[in-house]
Amino acid sequence: MLCPAPGLRAALRCLAGPAGRGADVVATHMTTADVAALISPALAQTPVVSTRHFAAPRGASPRARSVAERLQSRLSAEIAVSEYIAGGLDVDSTVIHPGIADRPDALSPSRRDHTVLVAQRLEEEKATDIAVAAFAASGLAARGWRLVVAGDGAMREDLQLLAERLAIGPSTDFLGHRDDVAHLMSAAAITLAPCPIEGFGLAVVEAMASSTPVVAAAAGAISRVSEVWTTQRSSLPGDVRAAGRLLAELADDAERRDRYGRALRDRQREHFSISARAATTDEVYRHAVESRRGDLPLAPGNGIIVISLEPWDRVWRRNQHLLAGLLRDDPTLRVLVVRTGYRSSARPALGQADPTRQGAASRSAPARCRPRQPVAPRNRPSSCPDDLTPARDERWADAVRLAAAKLRLEHPALWVNDPQGALVMQRTGWSTLYDITDDWLEAKRGPETLTRLRRHEDALMDRAAAVVVCSPQLVRTKSGRRPVTLIANAVDGETTRPTARPDDLPVGPVAVYVGTLHADRLDVDLCVATAHAIAAAGTVVLVGPDALSPPDRDRLAAAGVVRLGSKDRRAVPAYLQHADVLLVPHVVDSFTDSLDPIKLYEYRAVGRPVVSTPVAGFRDSTDERITVTGQAGFPAAVAAAIPATYQYPKGSDPPVSRHGVTASARSARSSIASSCP
């Protein structure tokens, strides 16, 4: 059934008819469609799944944005068409790439006409002028090659004049709108994609399906879509000379064109097919429908409740990575994540600086990892008082028990990351895994807080079915009381995929720290000293959730340190890859000695130079790219590393498989299984 709806009111009338009343799920695209589905009375009980095509908040006007923000929490799920889009959204989303039908094998690129194809709208934002200038810079016109531009738009006349001015007019064909792009792709020797803001880059995927080599701007989603080429060499957005050089290199090497074309075709068939898109989309729709109906079949005992120090948000830490790995391993698993809220127990400022919204539960989990069984974070309000009474403790523990019952988690295993979870263990008798990632007994806390922490940890060490730690130091300090299992942190392969330089990185050399900005770890004085030491050559950049005090923030700003705030987990690799040097300006004390920093694995995966204070993990590394020095020598060591002598990915190593997230998740599963009845 087709119901044309040119505006919001027309859409509401259509939805009030048989199509809307009989829908099991509603798929929406763009803000007006989202709003129509969410305010339609006929769809009040129907799940709505929105697909996002732009890395920006909803709505073109302040009013539209305001309405969309108020309604957003009612969406059952959100789909992003690329990692680039997902990283720019204000919510977690499931990435489902658009797919196209596999195409018959075409002539190898070396046997095709000597043409460079550009296929896109001729509008200003598509940067077709860069493509024309790059072809001119390549010198290919003088060698008999032609530039073929398929598409139409407001810039066509200007582009024709530009081609004439650059003396490539006789070698350039402007074809206008065409409906045979697939044929043009299979006939071209090279495709040129200059747009710096592609949310996905469908034309690039079409070229891949035709085995056509692609030279593209290393920006937006393109660098990950056509990663075979950008792994070897990437050109900056708007870099005409670099793009021209790449075109000339490909034109000079027929064998390379053929090899590259085959690799792109294989990647398209594996990752960007219609069947892959349909299967993943179906999983999300089924999950949305079943969640709304409450139809969540569950075998007794097949569930985990996680008492977490951190919110389930876009900044993934150990818990999120491990849970995602467990869910990939077992799609039937169901997990309830409870973020603790009493700020005095562990990270006092973090609850204020990085809150998550109450009720944002089912949308915050990685839907591709749990097509039928949702991870449902529940966050205790961050306004809870610090001086919790026993009655408040009991009410909180009861609230967790009731939430589990509502979700039919009948005999869950309890995964405790925050010692406050001891209250739930004692209240329910659930079999418990105690996962120690920080030794909070060594943190600088008041006597009342430390007393409470010791009481909770004593209970967990005595009664938990299993105890897991993340670092060798925690093995030494905790195993004297009872046996513990070491599950080190890890890094995902995603970290190593070349990515465009983030727009908010300062121009010039940068010394980058990625991690939570918290006084328990970050040496603010050292950051200030380092910023002064490199002021003439570069900038210190801090990336991560900001839990610093206002005075510390002011001191950093005065020294020229740039704080970029939290970044989506998918965006983090770009900041690592484009750092001239990566920093670990950590405080060195008994608390930081208990850590196994995830950044050790992330930093090593991208192979950039590292300067670290002598903290656990880094001080024991034999990686020659890691310089470990005390506070006195730290600023000078950073200054010596700027600017970098090479760009990523040169010199990088792939992640070691034994440190992979999947391996760690399976180790966690084994420990959890041993703690279950």
List keywords for this structure.
677 residues; Glycosyltransferase; Rossmann fold; 26 helices; single chain; alpha/beta; 4 domains; 7-stranded parallel β-sheet; 6-stranded parallel β-sheet
How would you describe this protein?
The chain is α/β, with parallel strands linked by helices and 677 residues long. The chain folds into four domains: 8-95, 3-Layer(aba) Sandwich (Rossmann fold); 109-271, Glycogen Phosphorylase B (Rossmann fold, 3-Layer(aba) Sandwich); 298-490 and 666-675, Rossmann fold, CATH 3.40.50; 502-657, Glycogen Phosphorylase B (Rossmann fold, 3-Layer(aba) Sandwich). Helix content is 37%, strand content 13%. The protein is built from 26 helices and 22 strands. The strands form four sheets. A seven-stranded parallel β-sheet has the order 12-11-10-13-14-15-16, with helices on both faces. Strands 19-18-17-20-21-22 form a six-stranded parallel β-sheet. Strands 7-6-5-8-9 form a five-stranded parallel β-sheet, sandwiched between helices. Strand 11, helix 16 and strand 12 (378-379) form a beta-alpha-beta unit. Helix 3 crosses helix 4, helix 6 crosses helix 12 and helix 15 (318-329) packs across helix 26. The radius of gyration is 27 Å and the shape is globular. It starts with 7 loop residues before the first helix and ends with a helix. The model is unreliable at 227-236, 295-299, 342-388 and 651-662 (pLDDT under 50).
